Amino acid sequence: MHIEVKHVSKTFGTHKAVSDVSFGIERGKLIGLLGPSGGGKSTLLRILAGLESPDSGDVYINGKRVNDVPPQQRGIGFVFQNYALFKHMNVYDNIAFGLTIRKADKKEITARVEELLDLTGLRGFERRYPHQLSGGQRQRVAFARALAPRPELLLLDEPFAAIDAKVRKELRTWLKQLIATIGITSVFVTHDQDEAVEVADEMLIVQQGRLEQQGPPLAVYTAPQTAFVASFIGHSSVIEKPQLLRGFEHRAELNGGRAIIRPEFVEVGREREIAYPSAAAKGTIRHVFFRGAHLELDVQVGDNRVSAYRSLDQEPLKPGEEVYVLIHRLYHITDQSAVMLENPLKVDPLPVHI
Amino acid sequence: MAGAITTHLSDKASIRPKHTNESPVVRVVLTVVALLFLGLIVVLPLASVFVEAFKRGADVYVASITDPDAVSALKLTLLTALIAVPLNTIFGVAAAWAISKFRFRGKNLLITLIDLPFAVSPVIAGLIFILMFGAQGWFGPWLDDHNIQIMFALPGIVLATTFVTFPFVARELLPLMQAQGIQEEEAAASLGAKGWQIFWRVTLPNIKWGLLYGIILCNARAMGEFGAVSVVSGHIRGETNTLPLHVEILYNEYQFSASFAVASLLVLLAVLTLVVKTFVEWKTAQREPDGERSGEQHAH
Amino acid sequence: MKGSKARSVLPGFGLSLGFTIFYLSIMVLIPLAGVFIKTTGLTWDQFWNTVTNARVLASYRVSLITALSAALANLVFGLLVAWVLVRYRFPGKKLVDSLVDLPFALPTAVAGIALTAIYAPNGWIGSLLVPLGIKVAFTPIGITIALIFIGLPFVVRTVQPVLQELDNETEEAAVMLGAYRWVTFRKVILPQLIPSLLTGFALAFARGIGEYGSVVFISGNMPLKTEITPLLIMTKLEQYDYAGATAIALVMLTASFLMLFIINYFQWRSNRRATTE
Predict the structure, then answer these.
(1) Domain at A146, CATH number
(2) In a domain, A186, yes or no
(3) Reported pTM
(4) Which chain B residue has its CA at the smallest distance from C28's CA?
(5) Which of A14, A213, B262, C24 is 20 to 30 Å from A267 by CA-CA measure?
(6) What is the dihedral of CA A212, A218, A219, A220, to 10 degrees?
């Protein structure tokens, strides 16, 4: 393990920012630290950096405990949320800062800065000041500046938060490729799950100071281990009375419990459109939302409301229309875990034996 | 230039993580040096005024400030401020209104010109009125013919005082009103409010605390002005002496206790000004709490 | 900013701007213009002889050197006071913060006699310094101390808001790049404070050159040694030498306006940087 965090806790006043978090990161991985705002992600990142010291627990880098190593000596590059560029220095001096204050050789500094200028596509902007750059360019400068002293670990705090939505996507791809090229172990904080899913090799889901789940994006998505992860990752409706749903009436464990249903688990349509009509219940369309590439339907089924998607190619459905609703599967939520249940009625209505 | 000193001393910047703060020893040393410096330069003179004033007992103190010359100096000082401060207040509000609510050419030049009196030595401020209204000045002969006395009389003192305290109210209001913009006034206008209604009901409530401090500060400077008034007053005891001039005369006559006793009245005025300033800052800080919490970065 | 009087729904533009310009003209611009016109009553030689007379030159030197020293002292201590007020916590901080404005609100004559009382050879501090052979009152050092008193709020109050708004992340960025505290201060914090420090310095310096009330008591007013230029103007006025006083005033005014111009330039430049950010 390159980085290891063991039972780390941190409290600010009465606010428990991080409580008993442990995880490990392999060398060269790009980790997305994902969770809602105020959930302790940034604090965790700052503890890794050494900008905050944990109240208890240990941080190891390369097997060495670094709790007492000051941030200046940890060999960590940090990209701040608002980049924190030095406003009074031009791009060149910003990138060179970490090397200059180490009193590195002048030629060496020039070579390294030039290399990073090329790598980040900032060549030609060396003499510009931060206020003369666009948001994306500033982020590149912050990135190059953090990389200049050749850190072993790169930490990025909400690296895309301050950038226009349009440029953001481009930068994500760029950053992922760049980090892959350099091969540096990286951790970035984000509250945007699309960003984490798209960029990260592995995700750490953090909520209320606790680590909820660690794993590759696909695994986290398909097999959420906790109620929070099931509801936080992906789009979902929370069902208060799942025992009333067609196909799940006889699941005793659902009594009094809650369930989470993703739109992609739900099929909505006219009778002939549904693959297994016998497994479907009748419902009413309440609202139809246009979501760009598809429609989102808000459907009332008995006492429950679920969301579903519908392709733009299909015949449109109108609010108030009676439809068939088939729930393929759902996550049953208990205090600690999320268990996936399949709809047992989903059997072929006319089995054809060959 | 010298106005606009309303700063909020919030705690935001004083709660710092260890790596962006000095070591405890350095912090203590810097704090002690700063306080020592302020003690030597600011607190000690303040204290000395009262110590010197009461050196020869409370009787001398009371006698000094109830002396007829002192009382007439106090009256003249109050009268001067009573004329100069309202004039500069009306000007300050008008100037701040024009500059902050409208766009026009030469705005920066206008702001610089309003600052001009700050850059003029008080002695020169007095001199310019002698050049205009003195015996050999532009209007001197004409004034003489019509038996109008401006120099070495109340009008001259008022003019010099008004000049010296000219920018204070405008300078206090300008940044405040510029920061507030014109949206609220435009909203009021769109709801049908007329000129003065907009001012009284929307603008004034927004600027009242800043305006109050501007007036108080202008008043303190008006009552305390020394150099400019010294040039135009003529130092006629009981007639054209303001309080600061009276302090000077007593001091030069080696009546130190009396001098400091009268000075202590002016110190009280200064202290009152600072109390009002502190109150105004507290009021404005209440109106705009430092509640911007963007993301979890600031959650602690 | 350019552009004609943009149409506005708000009333009172003509009235407020008209009154502003009218009042500014009669109170400030026309009286100040008098200095320039009155001086032209002198021939060039007379003017030159007046403003370069040995005693006048000496007064420039005293005024410049003391104002400069005081502004420099305030640069250092003003920054220190602002730093301590913004960044540290200690009991009575609010009170100390209010005290900084005292020189601004206290009549200059009162400051003058109070400082003289303390720093005179028989005063609280003066008497401590006499055995060391240091004389403060009635020397240029005394003038400098009075000007430090007068100029202190200018530096503190221009630096303080900038320091307050400094972004902590920028300092942390320096830390993450390997900078320790002193390097962070010198290379990251100080450069960001320089425009406001320069403005504060220039304000304190400009005010110091023109200051009269607080200085006359402590300076001793010895010609060629501790006579400041404003006092010399005063002396000439008392001798009814209006032309001479006006000539010297013209030199001072020109210097002051130059300072004002420079200060406004600094403020304009730092504002521009802040807004294009």
Answers:
(1) 3.40.50.300
(2) yes
(3) 0.86
(4) B163
(5) A213
(6) 20
